[in-house]
Amino acid sequence: MMFGLYLHIPFCRQRCSYCDFNTYAGMEAWMGPYVQALQEEMAWVRRQYGGPVPVDTVYFGGGTPSLLPVSLWEGLFRALHTHFQVAEGAEITVEANPESVTEEGLRVLRGWGVNRLSLGMQAVHPQDLRLLGRLHDFPAVIRAVALARKVGFENFNLDLIYGLPEQPLARWQKTLTWALRLAPEHLSCYALTLEHGTPLQAWVARGRVPEPDDDLAADMYAWTREVLEKAGFVQYELSNWARPDRACWHNLKYWRWEPYLGLGAGAHGFAAGVRTANVRAPQAYVQRLLKAREPVRPFPWTPATVVYHRVSPREAAEELMFMGLRLVQEGVPRARFERVVGRPLEDVYGPVLQELAQMDLVVWDAQGVRLTPLSLPVANQVFVRLLDPPLSGNGPGTMSDRRASGPSASSPTAFPAA
Ligand code: SF4
């Protein structure tokens, strides 16, 4: 069994106005102790597992992993190769922000086997970047991409956001067109969501910034799908497009309900049928890891774990559907559903799938179930119909445990990029 491995680096130079991720600005002094604690957590996972854990994807997300000084990466990669058995040809991704990329830093990452870079480009127009609170401009993106190519990266993603307040369609079209000129292998295009507690949400609530226009965002999404298809990209997930064979293997694990370990402050994992979430504050994370402790639960527990929730059959069915249906080509194969849930798809979801198929919102055939082009812009309306399948047992955890510990249908990806 191969696992995915997510490692959270919770540091940013400045908080962006729309961001509700578990990240912190002004904590550079904590980088050293944090990285040491992360190495400790890797060692815990190895001990709990009973040897080096086999992984075929590794994802350094954040936060802004590219902010870590070169001197700290060495310890991280040494620990990675000591405590994990990294498969030959594994996908190793690092998230980076354009303004924090240096040639030396990229060379070091490439030298340690990092073979995929995910760059937070977000937009082209200075007004959009300013509203989002981003520190870079478009020339910084061009420079970062050129440096990445120069040091040998052949696989990179650009993260983009559309549907911003006061963003006309033409401005989004310019963002995507200019992003395509950089010849990325992968594009993540997310509609802006106003997250509770963010400055942007407060500005909109006070009327300082107009509300994003949902209808316009739907037009942008439709245009994006059309243009990227013409440009030779495959839309493999609701918000993700890739050149053939360049889908993100790591994120595919989330959507396919495959096991992954989440290490670092606030990281989420799913392994051995258990969803885990770590303590969020970096200071608390460091304290927990640097204090010697006896294990209180089996793998995948570590001293940073604050949620340890065994997934019930009902939760498994819901999650399989919510996550799997995001994969627009693949959907949820019948065989996977039956293997995980222990019951055929029709036994659990027959009547509701029949109804959704009649409305042309899903295709339900011998392979399994998939969304239709009609339902892509309103996928959440399909997902709510799949809540509470007729299966027994919510398992030992509570609903609030579950929300805290796993990716949800409304989150575009479990661990969005910097
Ligand atoms: S959006 Fe990315 S760069 Fe901005 S604060 Fe959040 S994690 Fe940091």
How would you describe what is shown here?
This protein has 418 residues and is α/β, with parallel strands linked by helices. It folds into two domains: 252 residues, TIM Barrel (Alpha-Beta Barrel), CATH 3.20.20; 82 residues, Arc Repressor Mutant, subunit A (Orthogonal Bundle). The protein has 15 helices and 17 strands. The strands form four sheets. The chain has a nine-stranded mixed beta sheet, sandwiched between helices. Strands 12-13-14 form a three-stranded antiparallel beta sheet. Strand 5, helix 3 and strand 6 form a beta-alpha-beta unit. Helix 1 runs parallel beside helix 2 and helix 6 runs parallel beside helix 8. The longest helix is centred in the first third of the chain and has 19 residues. The chain is globular and about 55 Å long. The two termini are 29 Å apart. The protein binds iron/sulfur cluster (SF4). The site of iron/sulfur cluster has 12 residues, from loops.
Annotate the secondary structure layout.
Blueprint: E1 3-9, E2 11-12, E3 24-25, H1 31-49, E4 53-62, H2 70-83, E5 84-96, H3 103-111, E6 116-122, H4 126-132, H5 138-150, E7 156-162, H6 169-181, E8 186-191, H7 199-205, H8 214-230, E9 234-237, E10 240-242, H9 249-255, E11 260-263, E12 268-271, E13 274-278, H10 282-290, E14 305-310, H11 313-324, E15 332-333, H12 334-341, H13 345-358, E16 362-364, E17 368-371, H14 379-385, H15 399-405
Parallel strand pairs: 1-4, 1-11, 2-3, 4-5, 5-6, 6-7, 7-8
Antiparallel strand pairs: 8-10, 9-10, 12-13, 13-14, 15-17, 16-17
Helix pairs in contact: 1-2, 1-10, 6-8
